[in-house]
């Protein structure tokens, strides 16, 4: 197989193991989950998939995004059916902030593409502006999902699949490599690095909380 096919296959295997562990644990009532968080992340991956597919076609990055989008949507369904569905006031605030992030990300991008066809005048604002706004919006939206899961980690650290969290970290170097091969823009690197740092930090926090909790027993 070529490099592209190997990367896609490895991504599928890692994703299947990672989300499989989480899904089975949630179905058995062993692990806690957040419907709001998975909904935010699923929406983000849907948007990323559509944008990259419309721009670049079926690159390695697009295939990886399709795999992640499918997995995240499955987690929404599983969480809805087998975990707590309640969305409290704090969750709603996070959701509204994430929607603001999506607006900051997608509206300038949409306007930049439809401006000239609708008005007949060229888009005079440099594309760097919607690009930077897009990065900011993506991070805001994604971070709200991370903060929602942070509450779960702090409340019940033993009701999270540590193995799945560790396995999920393998996705980020793989995504970087796939981005390099696909010759994607620097935007992709920024978000992947941010996500790796964010969720790597949550993993370290989960381990730290567990160690402290065990030490006090």
Structural topology:
Layout: H1 3-27, H2 35-56, H3 60-82, H4 89-119, H5 128-155, H6 162-168, H7 171-182, H8 186-215
Helix pairs in contact: 1-3, 1-6, 1-7, 2-3, 2-4, 2-5, 4-5, 5-8, 7-8
Tell me the strand percentage band: under 5%
How would the global form be characterised? Answer: globular
Structural category: mainly alpha
Question: How widely separated are the two ends?
Answer: 51 Å
Number of domains: 1
What is the total tally of β strands?
0
What's the main sheet like?
none
Strand and helix order: HHHHHHHH
Structural account:
The chain is mainly alpha-helical. It has one domain. The chain is built from 8 helices and no strands. Helix 1 (3-27) runs parallel beside helix 3, helix 1 packs antiparallel against helix 6 (162-168) and helix 2 runs antiparallel to helix 3. The longest helix has 31 residues, at 89-119. The mean pLDDT is 83.
């Amino acid at each position: 197989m070529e490099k592209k096919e190997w990367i896609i296959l490895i991504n599928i295997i890692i994703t299947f193991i990672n989300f499989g562990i989480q899904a089975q644990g949630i179905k058995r009532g062993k692990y806690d989950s957040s419907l709001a968080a998975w909904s935010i992340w699923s929406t983000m991956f849907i948007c990323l998939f559509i944008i990259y597919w419309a721009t670049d076609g079926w690159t390695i990055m697009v295939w990886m995004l399709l795999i992640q989008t499918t997995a995240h949507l499955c987690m929404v369904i599983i969480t809805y059916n087998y975990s707590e569905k309640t969305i409290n006031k704090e969750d709603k605030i996070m959701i509204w902030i994430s929607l603001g992030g999506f607006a900051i990300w997608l509206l300038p991008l949409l306007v930049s593409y439809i401006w000239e066809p609708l008005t007949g005048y060229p888009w005079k604002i440099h594309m760097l502006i919607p690009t930077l706004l897009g990065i900011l919006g993506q991070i805001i939206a994604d971070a709200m999902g991370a903060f929602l899961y942070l509450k779960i980690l702090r409340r019940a650290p033993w009701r999270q699949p540590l193995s799945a969290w560790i396995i999920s970290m393998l996705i980020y170097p793989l995504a970087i490599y796939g981005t390099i091969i696909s010759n994607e823009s620097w935007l992709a690197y920024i978000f992947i690095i941010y996500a790796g740092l964010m969720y790597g930090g949550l993993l370290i926090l989960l381990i730290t909380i567990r160690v402290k909790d065990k030490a006090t027993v």
